[in-house]
Amino acid sequence: EAAIMNPLTNVLALRSATTLQIFNLDAKAKVKSHTMPEPLVFWKWTSVSNLALVTSTSVYHWSLEDANPPTKVFDRHQTLGPNTQIINYKVSPDGKWCLIGGISAGAGGVVNGNMQLYSLEKKVSQPLEGHAASFAKIQLAGRADPAQVLVFHEKKAAAPPGE
Prior knowledge:
Blueprint: E1 2-5, E2 11-16, E3 19-24, E4 29-35, E5 40-47, E6 50-55, E7 58-63, E8 71-75, E9 85-91, E10 97-105, E11 111-119, E12 124-138, E13 147-154
Antiparallel strand pairs: 1-2, 2-3, 3-4, 5-6, 6-7, 7-8, 9-10, 10-11, 11-12, 12-13
């Protein structure tokens, strides 16, 4: 049904209905497999060793570094409901934040964008209205280490066109 290659290694993830399998193509071996409790609506490699799995209700991470099944990370916020098409998922460089984004049909043909920022440390979410976001590191004057930031485009659903 679907396949995605690991971005840095010769590892392939396959999906058929709710069954997931990961293969190491160099070793010609199955690394692991799992049957999800519900169908995936989005999946993406977030690192060389982590596959993010998004269902209609929750977000999971599946690590290649152990034999464990996918771990539920958080539930999707109500603003990312069943009529939302998930279009992106990111994990911050320090691994402390997750961001899921989706779009849905609004009134008058408008495309609404909603995102959910989730803190892995505090286990809390913040809904955001917008279509695009990314984590970045920047060097600030007077600070020795780079600052990690979230950059996003905000567009409120009720905003007039062009704003």
